[in-house]
Design brief:
Blueprint: E1 4-17, E2 20-33, E3 37-41, H1 48-55, E4 63-68, E5 71-72, H2 78-88, E6 89-92, H3 104-114, H4 119-132, H5 148-160, E7 166-170, H6 178-193, E8 197-201, H7 205-208, E9 213-218, E10 221-224
Parallel strand pairs: 3-8, 3-9, 6-7, 7-8
Antiparallel strand pairs: 1-2, 1-4, 4-5, 9-10
Length: 225
């Protein structure tokens, strides 16, 4: 499947500063195909996380064109964007973003509830996912009772449980030991081989190499592809 999943045309993001504009992203043109594994690199302040949050529709204040699966995101209303996000995207953050008042199993169930999966089916999917990630013994624990590596494993499991077309990962291994980091990256590689498109932001050269396409940002511009 080598269709076009993402098309960005002249995407820009700026903040009003006094009398002028401070640009975080400038004229970003980018195509990502179905099944790609893309790494975004660049120094701090280059605009990497901003680009990821625009792709994930967490940030709506930008100019230019963004097509996701041929849907013009730039023309959608906030509610429509939210629906599209829930249907197509799984997000993995550096800081896990698990809900502390929910158990591991309940955290995993959440994305399924957004997609109107019947509760009888949801239990089965959660059980399979716990099994796949070898965290069955942790299902009734709360995030605060887990180590950082275990929390990130749960966060990845939550991102993929509803089989999103696209996984966006912002420094997903940033808080982990290298052995745990490798476990997460190997998992991404396997998911990608199974057809999930992945876009990750990382500073780590080893993890960057998992991507088949590396995009470098500097001062908000793409400097090479």
């Amino acid at each position: 499947m080598d269709g076009n999943l993402i098309r960005l045309r002249n995407l820009e993001r700026y903040y009003e500063l006094g009398t002028g504009k401070f640009y975080v992203l400038r004229r970003i043109n980018l195509d990502v195909n179905d099944g790609d594994f893309v790494t975004i690199m660049g120094p701090s302040g280059a605009g990497k996380s901003t680009l990821l949050s625009i792709l994930g529709m967490l940030d709506g204040e930008w100019g230019g064109e963004y097509y996701l699966s041929d849907q013009p995101v730039h023309d959608l209303k906030p509610k429509q964007r939210s629906e599209l996000n829930k249907r197509t995207i799984g997000f993995v953050f550096q800081q896990y973003h698990l809900l502390d008042n929910l158990t591991v199993a309940e955290n995993l169930d959440l994305p399924l509830s957004y997609r109107n999966v019947k509760s009888s089916e949801r239990q089965g999917i959660v059980a399979d996912t716990l099994d796949r990630f070898q965290i069955v013994g942790k299902k009734d624990l709360y995030p605060t009772q887990l180590s950082g590596g275990q929390q990130q494993l749960v966060a990845v499991a939550r991102a993929i449980i509803a089989k999103p077309q696209l996984i966006l990962a912002d420094e997903p291994t940033g808080s982990l030991h290298s052995s745990q980091g490798k476990e997460i990256m190997d998992l991404f590689k396997k998911l990608n081989e199974e057809g999930t498109t992945i876009i990750q932001v990382t500073h780590n050269e080893n993890w960057a190499a998992y991507g088949r396409k590396i995009i470098k940002l500097a001062d908000g511009w793409i400097v090479n592809e």
